[in-house]
Amino acid sequence: MKQINTDIAIVGAGSAGLCAAIQAANTGAKVMVFDENHKAGGQLFKQIHKFFGSREHRAGTRGFLIGEQLLQEVENCGAEVHLNSVAYGIFDGNTLGIVEGEPHHETHYAVKAKKIILAGGAKENYMAFPGSTLPGVMGAGAAQTMINVNRVLPGEKIIMVGSGNVGLIVSYQLMQAGADVLAIVEGAPKIGGYGVHAGKIRRAGVPILVSHTILKAYGENEVEGAIIAQLDDHWNPIPGSEQDVKCDTICLAVGLNPMTELAYMAGCQMAFIPALGGHVPMHDEHMETTVPGVYVAGDITGVEEASTAMEEGNLAGLSAACALGYIDEAAAKEKEAAFLNRMAMLRSGEFGERRRTAKAEQVAAFHNYQKGIGVKDGE
Amino acid sequence: MENKGVVYTGCPSPEELANAPGVPSAARLAKGPVAVIECVQHIPCNPCEAACPFGAITVGDSITNLPVLDVEKCTGCGTCVAACPGLAIFTVDMNYSETEAGVEFPYEYLPLPEKGMVVDAVNRCGEVVCKGTVVRVRSAANFVNTRVVKLAVPKQFANEVRSMKRLPRA
Amino acid sequence: MAEKTRRVVEHPILPAQPDQKKVTIYYNGQPLEAVEGEPIAAALMNAGIRAFRKTVKLHEPRGIFCAIGRCTDCMMTVDGHPNTRTCVTYVKDGMKVESQDGYGKNEVVVK
After folding, report:
1. Residue in B with minimal Cα distance to A205
2. Nearest Cα to A176, choosing from A46, A305, A58?
3. Neighbouring residues of A219: CB distance < 8 A, sequence distance ≥ 6
């Protein structure tokens, strides 16, 4: 099998992977990026709202336009981006197996890299209830992909389950695309996402039903309606509170989980941190995992936002290039401080607290592992 | 139903608004056009600060601070209305006419309203509170497709009206 | 043919998409108009088709869930290849797309 050698190989050309590539390639390192999709940019091209943060975080710019900016920067930086390229495995901690090309016409090769950055992102959680397998029940992100990338409405009368930022933002975007959102159903007694995102939905006349759940979806061959009900203080449905809502689509915005397969395969030690989406690779302050030379960035190392993914990508790319001697440590330190400062800003405040604590826990888990603390026999 | 606050309803409560440092006093409102920054949660965000051509909005070094409005510097020009990623800034002009106030809000739906149209004006919870006349629909390159719609509404609804009912698609 | 379209043609934020080339795909033998470069799933959804396959044991209908090639709920037989993820497989003129019951059957001789 053909083998290609490179300094840095990056899996995933989304917000984290592209930023990592730009940082690393700008130091002069030879960088290759692999992404299974036919276009780079990951989830950025689905995000049509203006980003939060500060100017340094590209705040005020719509996500898809940030995607365009990153594509331009990655083209200018000299990193090689391989699309339609699946990284199906990682071997000996430094070699990726790649299958590249159109379906049924692929070529197969190995990439041996001095450093590997895993930036494969996350996937949406599923929620089971009677009827939840009916066509018309889909992830909120799936609906977002359909309207903003594929430009097709998945339905016209929609119920959104979950009031985190994803549920709120996708509800808004469904209305922008021309659909009606009948209600947002939230099990918790409080709205999960930002009040300003909820405010947009409310002004548009959409009720946000906190302490409510979906009992079932019904329909012959696809969704025709749903039964929703109110929950008591113990999260049990209150008898008699059931409402029958005629809808054609039910979107689930019930969180995401990191796509950690390659990290597991590389042998990275994992920590279970629910606030970050479940099992995530332990990493140090430079995004390096317990497998020397393997770095992580973005949702794979804890589900957050594109803005934080970009900063983690910057940090991982810079750290990998620095470890290879492409940038001297003093210069790297200065840049790194800026990335860390921007990351801290994104995790500040009432909404950032949970993630801030969780990320600290993840780094602490790395150091404890290195010191042999909390490691069971045989691990 | 009583509004216990934005985390329960999605609509900031009167108390939350009264405590927000971006919401001007009744006395300032009475003087004429001014921004109303209905930002009541400590989220990491500050584009409004740089957007203001008069330096009237301050978030400061910690970007989770609530934006503070300097009501003396603010002219109610509305530049911040299109710049707020949360679509949480409005302008109110209590002196629009003898009987009407002007209310500006961001708008990102199709079809767009047109000048002269009479539309349903809605409050923070999307309830229709009165009719409003579209006075102006602004767009600019740096608004990146956010439109700023100005409605003339009866004065008594100036602090309630925050958007309009979406117009039906063709 | 004045079929109902679910396409998001006019959008308050996203740019218009003029000059899109139309192609024809065949869904269970029926011709369907599709936009060149779009995933098969988008073309089917635009036509109001949302049940893509039936499950192995209970033969229940399934459609799009993740739309990013992860969940495999949208698999169909495409040009004779069963278990093709239609959310990340892009239309080509003349493509044959068939709903799949269970595992499907490979109709292509692999050289």
Report:
1. B126
2. A46
3. A131, A134, A136, A225
Residue ranges of chain B with per-residue pLDDT less than 50: none
Per-residue HEC secondary structure of A231-251 comes to ECCCCCECCCCCEEECCCEEE
Cβ pair B8, A210 in contact under 8 A? yes
- Amino acid A306 reads A
Asked if C74 contacts C86 with a C-beta cutoff of 8 angstroms, the reply is yes
- Residue that the structure tokens 């490691």 belong to: A375
Which of A196, A212, A307, A341 is most worth mutating to test chain B (most B CB atoms within 10 A of its CB)?
A196
Alpha carbon distances (Å) from B169 to A144, A165, A282, A351, B109: 20, 26, 50, 36, 10
CB A214 within 8 A of CB A159: yes
Name the token pair of A304.
Answer: 């957050």
Cβ-in-10-Å burial (0-12, 13-18, 19+) of B127 comes to middle
Report chain A residues whose CB lies below 8 A from the CB of C11: 151, 176-177
- In sequence order, the 6+-apart residues with CB closer than 8 A to the CB of A8 are A20, A21, A24, A29, A30, A31, A32, A113, A114, A115, A116, A117, A317, A320, A321, A324
Residue of A125, A133, A150, A170 for testing the chain C interface, max C β-carbons within 10 Å: A150
Judged by a CB distance cut-off of 8 A, whether residue C109 touches chain A is no
Closest residue of chain C to B169, computed from CA coordinates? C10
Question: For residue A164, which of A124, A192, A183 has the smallest C-alpha distance?
Answer: A192
Phi, psi of A68 (to 5 degrees): -60, -45
What is the distance between the alpha carbons of residues A343 and A20, in angstroms, rounded to a whole number?
15
Q: Which residue of B has its CA nearest to C13?
A: B145
User: Tokens 């300094």 belong to which residue?
Assistant: A7
ipTM of the complex: 0.97
Residues linked to residue A273 through DSSP beta bridges, in sequence order: A278
Instruction: Give the one of A49, A52, A190 whose C-beta lies nearest to B45's C-beta.
Output: A52
pLDDT of residue B1: 55
How far apart are the CA of A47 and the nearest CA of chain B, in angstroms? Answer: 13
Q: Is the peptide bond before B111 cis (omega within 30 degrees of 0)?
A: yes
Residues 8-27 of C with CB under 8 A from B: 10-13
Can you tell me which residue has the tokens 């190995």? A110
Q: Which residues of A touch C68 (CB under 8 A)?
A: 37, 123, 141-142, 145
Q: Tell me the pairing of strands A31-34 and A2-11.
A: parallel
Å from A121 to nearest chain B CA? 22
pLDDT in tens, C4-43: 889 999 999 999 998 899 999 999 999 999 999 999 999 9
The C-alpha atoms of residue A224 and residue A245 are separated, in whole angstroms, by 9
| φ, ψ dihedrals at B49, nearest 5° | -60, -50
| Eight-state DSSP code of residue A316 | H
pLDDT tens, position by position, A301-351: 999 999 999 999 999 999 999 999 999 999 999 999 999 999 999 999 999
CA separation (Å) from C92 to C21, C95, C109? 11, 5, 20
